[in-house]
Amino acid sequence: MSDTIVIIGAGQAGGWTAKTLRDKGFTGRLVVVGDESWDFYERPPLSKSALQQAQPPFSPLFSAETLAALNLEWRRPLRAEAIDRAAQEVVLSSGERLRYDQLVIATGGQARLPGREWQAHPRVYTLRSWDDATRLRAGLSAGQRVAVVGGGWIGLEIAATARGLGKAVTVFESQPRLCQRSVDPDVSSGLLALHQSHGVTVHLNCGAVTLDDQQGLALIGSAATEQQAFDCVVVGIGVTLNSELAARAGLKVAQGIVVDARGRTSDPAIFAVGDVAQHPRLGLCLQSWAWAQNQAIATAAAMRDPQAPEYDDGPWLWSDQYGHNIQILGLPGVADRTWIRRQPAGDVYFSLDERGRLTQLVSFNDPRTVKLARRWQASDRELDPAQLVNPEFSLMSLK
């Protein structure tokens, strides 16, 4: 068994890898390389409670006692600059070379910006880390007019939080609809109506959004709008995966780092977990809490036992906006048809293929149906749309 395991990345995936390795009996040297000064922490609060309170509580991934019991060697705040696969060493930004028997890459991603001028403007913010949230909280506190560039999940969560703080919020989305890449048009329409009902101005079909400066304020313009001045501009247009370290080391990289169902890369001594790892069946990368945690746990278990169960869970993510818990299970297909169940607590959207099998479910405030949907997908059940949309019909009878 390995004597030294090095984990590059101290986010959620890296944290769960470390904990699971210890839970599965690894007693050797466990080194974590992180580019932040913080211990592992929960990231979902960054777009919500971390922006809402003047002194928000830090949300550690593990208790102080649990973290201490992991007996980690930290290298922070440092970056891994190179992987020498022949020597099985990681070269750090400090010049240190860390020898490994097994290596885990959990480098995640970084927020994308439309151009260099965005990075330099003091009114422009992104949100990927605790330090980002601290800076953005100060920006929201100091201003009233907030622009959110990007109508995906992170952008919409920030928009909802800013509205809850009483800010005037405008969302700029380059595509014809909100969350276009992850949900079907009916769900996008529901999200649009939700935000408009809370006073958010939403501009769709914006194309490339421009940034100029007006005496320190940010001027935002687009093909669909005139230039407007904002006190605070938050960019949420996706991430650039931190896969360059793996690529330079000669590992197989496609959309992300290519891994098998046990997290192993093209080098049998190297594994990848979290955002930067490509889903082995879907051939794409997922940015979600569930993927970062569960795929990391499965990979760490496989590092200890090559016969451990393979990981093949489909996409599952959730979002909290205006007091609504929105859960998304699966991905819609091109030829799917969506059926809507109207309920007092919130609507549920069922996307079915031509045989009536569920490909995606989007639930507003109905976690029980999400649990049922998992069973339907696992059993490949064919569903009757007439039953799904009838609020008098008990979905529990479809167990």
Walk me through the structure.
- By secondary structure, this protein is α/β, with parallel strands linked by helices.
- It has three domains: 4-110 and 240-304, FAD/NAD(P)-binding domain (3-Layer(bba) Sandwich); 113-235, FAD/NAD(P)-binding domain (3-Layer(bba) Sandwich), CATH 3.50.50.60; 323-398, Enolase-like, domain 1.
- 26% of the residues lie in helices and 27% in strands.
- The chain contains eleven helices and 25 strands.
- The protein has a five-stranded parallel β-sheet, with helices on one face.
- α1 runs parallel beside α9 (289-304).
- The longest helix has 16 residues, at 289-304.
- The chain starts with a strand and ends in a 10-residue tail after the last helix.
* Secondary structural class: alpha/beta
Helix content: 25-40%
Assign the CATH superfamily of the largest domain.
FAD/NAD(P)-binding domain
Q: According to CATH, what is the topology of the largest domain?
A: FAD/NAD(P)-binding domain
Query: Sheet bearing the most strands, described?
Result: 5 strands, parallel
Taken as a percent bin, the fraction of beta residues is 25-35%
Strands, total number: 25
Count of discrete alpha- or pi-helical segments spanning 4 or more residues: 11
Number of domains: 3
Roughly how many Å is the radius of gyration? 22 Å
Measure the end-to-end span.
43 Å
Mean pLDDT: 96
- Which regions are unreliable across 5 or more consecutive residues at pLDDT < 50? none
Look at the structure and give the CATH class of the largest domain: Alpha Beta
> Which architecture name of the largest domain does CATH use?
3-Layer(bba) Sandwich
Shape: globular
Strand order of the largest sheet: 3-2-1-7-19
